Amino acid sequence: MKLKGAPVIFVPGNAGSYKQVRSLASVALRKGMDNDRGIHMDYFTVNFEEQLSALYGGYLENQKLFLRIAILAVRTLYKEANNVDKSIILVGHSMGGKVAQAVIQDPAIAKYINTIIFISSPIDKPVVNFDPKINEFYSNTDGYFHNKRTTHLPNRQTNVCLNYQDKIPHQGNESKILDNILMISMGGGNRDLLVRDGLTTSQYNDIHAMTSSIPKVWLSCDHLSAVWCLQLVLVINRFIFGISVIDENKNVFFSPDKYYRTQTAINYFVKPLNKPKSNEVYFPKLNSGSSWQEDSKIAFRKVFKNGLRADYNHLLPTAKYKELKKIYIEIDSYEDFENDWVFGCTAHRTEASGLYCQKGTSLSHFVQTIPSHDNYRYMVLLDIHRMLKYYPDWTHILVRLKPTNKPTSLKIDAYSVEDRKYKIKAPKFSLPKLKTLVNETVMGTIHTGVLIEGLDEPFPTVQFDIEPVECGDDEFGVTAKICIPWARGFNRHIHLTHDTKVKTIYVNVPFSTPSGYNTTQNPVTLDLFLNPSCRYKISYQFSIAGTFSKIVQEFYHWLPAHLTAVLFLVLRNQIVSFQNSEDALFVKPYAGFFQSKSLYIVTGCRLLKKLLLNLKFLPISPDTSNYSFYVSIIIHGTAIVLSIVSVFSIWTILTFHGNILHKIALKLTRLSTASSEILMKVVTTLPLSFGVLFISISVGTCSGIGLTLATIFYFLVISNAYKDYLENWAWDKAKGIFKRIRQKIRSTSKNKGTVALSQREIIAVDGNPGQELIPNNENGDTNELDDSNEVANEEKCSYFEGLENVAFHITMLMLLGIMSALNFGLSVAWIKAKYQGHIHEHLPDPFIIPTIITLTCLSVLLQLGAPRKSSGYHYVAIILYLCVCGCILFCQEIVYRLSYLITFVYVCVALQEVCYNFYTLMHK
C-alpha cells in the first residue's frame, strides 16, 4: 500500500454500485502501464449500498458524511509523501455528483479537492423534489456556494456560439474560497431519460459539455451507460492524466494551477485548443518530389483513392476568393491530421518549377473536427477579409498533404455568407406544415447554415428534413451541428447517413433564455456539413411529436400538482351538490369530474403569481418558472383526463373486482381471511379503530407503508358498504325490466277487449263515470302509468340512497392514494433497509405528522358518516378553491408540499363535520 499515484474517488449515484468505477479504473490502469512518463492513477470507490438517494432525501446527509470520512481515509494512505500536495479528484455519477459537491461545504475537506467531475448529475435542482430532506439538502448547498464560489450565469449579451470562453473564468479570477476547485459537468443528451439536459449544468460549474458535443465522443449516452461508454471514459482519463504531474521521486499529483486545468478541460471536453504559431514553416525544395497545384474554383473536390506517394500542395489564390469572403476547406480519412496541413503564404513563381511557397504560417488553430460515419472530418472555415486585414502580403492559402497509404480527399467550398445563411422564425404551436427552405442545393456545396429565431423555451421543436435529390455514385451523408447561444456546452452533433432510417433533425433548446434575451440578434444556429457530390432539398416544420415528447420530459413532474388540484375542485363540486337536495348529479360515478372550471383557475393563477412574487412577507414563494400558457393547459388537461380514467377504473374495480385488493391486502399484512373479516367488522362498527390501526403501523414502520395500507383498506371499507347496495340495485333493475315487459304484453291485448270496454263506458255514463274511465288490469293491480312511475321512483330512491356517500369517499380515497404515492421513495427505502437487515437504521420520516393527522381526520369522517346535510359547507368550498390555486402556484416544482396540502383539506372537511355535529348536539 505504498501508493505513489494520484488519487481519484468515484461516488456512485441513485441505486448505483461501487462497481461502476471499473470502466474508468481499468482504462486508467492500461493508460498508466503504457505511459512513458510513469504517471498513473489510484482509483478508489465508495459503497453506498445502492441507496435510492434520488427518491428519498434522508440518505443524502449520511452519504455526505460518509464521503467526508472516505476522503480523510484516502489522505492517510499518502502520509509518506509529505512534500507533495496529494489533492483528490472526485468523479460523481448521478446523485453522487451532488454528494461530491456538497462535501466541500466542509472547509477541512475543500482544501484537499482539486477537481470535481459530474457525470449526468442533477446539480442545482433535483429531478423531482419528493421530500423536504431533498429540498433542504439542495437549499443548504446552494446557500453555501452562493457565498463561497463565483457564479457563471448567461446574460443578455451571452453568445457562446461566437466565443465559448466568454463565460469561463480565467487566471486571477479566484476571488472566493471555493473558486480554486475546478468543476466539470457532463450531460448524456437525448438518450438520458432520467436526468434531463437542463439539470446537468450548474451556475457554479467552470465547464459544461454534453456527450454529443465532446470531441471524439459525439454520442448521446443514457443515464447508466455514461459510466462505461468507452469514448467518454477515454476522454475523462485523458483529461485526468493531462493535469497530472510527476516529481523526481515518482510521486504523481494533480496540478494546483486552476487556469492550466481549465484550459486542459476545454481542450478535451469542448474543442482542441490549437494555439496560433508565430514561427514560419519552411517547405522542402521542389526537387523533393512534391507536387504543387493552383486552383481558383469555387467548388473543388479531389480524391486520392490509393493514398499519396509524395507531398501534395494545393494553392488557393486569395485574390480570387476575396469577394466571396468565406472559404471552407476539408480533408477526411487523413492519418496525419494532427500535424499542420493548412498555411497562409506568399507564393513565388519560377520558370523551372512554376508557382510555389518557400515558407508559410500555420493556420491549424482554425481547424475543427466533426464526426463522420466511420471516421472524422477535419475542416477549417476561413474569413478571407479578416485574414488579409492582418496579413495583407499573403497571396495564397496552402493545403499541404503528406504521403499516406490510406485513401484521402480534399474538398473546397468558397461562398458568400449571405448566400449560405438562411433565417427562419421558429413556428409556434400549429399544425405541421412543411415549408421548403432550399429547393435544391448547388452541386459542390459543403457548408450551409440556418439561423432559427424564436426558440426561447425548452419544449418547442423544429423538425428539419434533409432529402438527397441526387448523389451520383457517393453515399448520402450529412453532419449537423446545433449551437444554443445562451447555453454553454449544449452543442449537439447529429450524423445522418444512407443507413439512417429517418433523415430528420430535431432542434430544441435545453432551458429558457435569460430575461430580456433577444433571439433575433442571437439565434440558434444549425450548421449543415454536406457531401459536395450530392444535391439536397431542405425543408422544415413544427414538430408536434417532438414538442410533446419534450413537454413530457421537462414537465411530467407537474402532473401530481395538477391532478391534486383537479380532485380538490371535484371534491368541492361534490360537497356543494350534496347539500342541494334537488340536484342528484353528485351520486353518479363521474360526478364533478367532467368540468372545465379548473382551466380558468390555471389562467387566474398565472396572473396571481405575478402579484405574489412581489410580496416579500410570504413564508414560501411560488414557483418562479415562467413558461408559455400552453404547457400549463396541456398538463392540466392531461390531469383532468387522468382523473376521469382513474375514477372509472376505481368504479370498475369496485363493481367487478373488489376482492382483488382484499387479497393484496392480506398478502401485504399476512393476515388470515378470518382475521381480516374480524378486522373489517371492527372497522365498520367502530371507524375510529381505522385511524388507530394505521397510525400504529405508520409509527412502527414508516408513513409510506401506513398510508399505502390505509388506502387499500379504505377501498375495502367502501367496497363492503357498496356490496349490499349492488345486490339490491341489480334486483330492482331486474324487477323494473320485468314490469316493463309485462306492460308491453298487456298493451298488445287491449284491442281484444274493445266490446267489453264500450259496455263499461256506457255503464260509466249512467252510473259513476269517475271510477270506470280508467281501466284496471285483470289482477287488480295499479294502472300502467302508476307502475312506470313507481319503478322510476324506486330506482331513483335506491340509486340515491346507495351512492350518496360513495362518490365523496372515492375522491377522498384518490387524494389519500396521491399522498401514498408521494411517500413511495420512503416506503421503498424502509423495505430495502429491512431486507438488507438494517431495520434498526434510523430513517428520518418527514411525513409522519401529516400522516397521523390525515388518518385521524379520515377516521372521524367515517365515524360521523360524512358527508351529511349541514351548514358551513360554503367555507369549505372557498378553502378548496384556494387549495386548487395553492397546488398550481406552490407545488409544481416542489412536489412534496402536496402532502401538507392534502392533509389541510382533510382537516378542513373533518372540522366542518365535527363543528356541525357539535352544533346539533348543543341545540337539541
UniProtKB/TrEMBL annotation:
Domain called GPI inositol-deacylase PGAP1-like alpha/beta: residue spans: 3-241
Keyword terms: Endoplasmic reticulum, Hydrolase, Membrane, Protein transport, Transmembrane, Transmembrane helix, Transport
The enzyme's E.C. designation: 3.1.-.-
Main location: endoplasmic reticulum
Transmembrane segments: 627-654, 690-717, 806-826, 847-866, 872-891, 898-919
Membrane topology: Multi-pass membrane protein
Enzyme class: hydrolase
Family in the record: Belongs to the GPI inositol-deacylase family.
PANTHER family with a match to the protein in the record: GPI INOSITOL-DEACYLASE (PTHR15495:SF7), NEGATIVE REGULATOR OF VESICLE FORMATION-RELATED (PTHR15495)
UniProt-recorded name of the protein: GPI inositol-deacylase
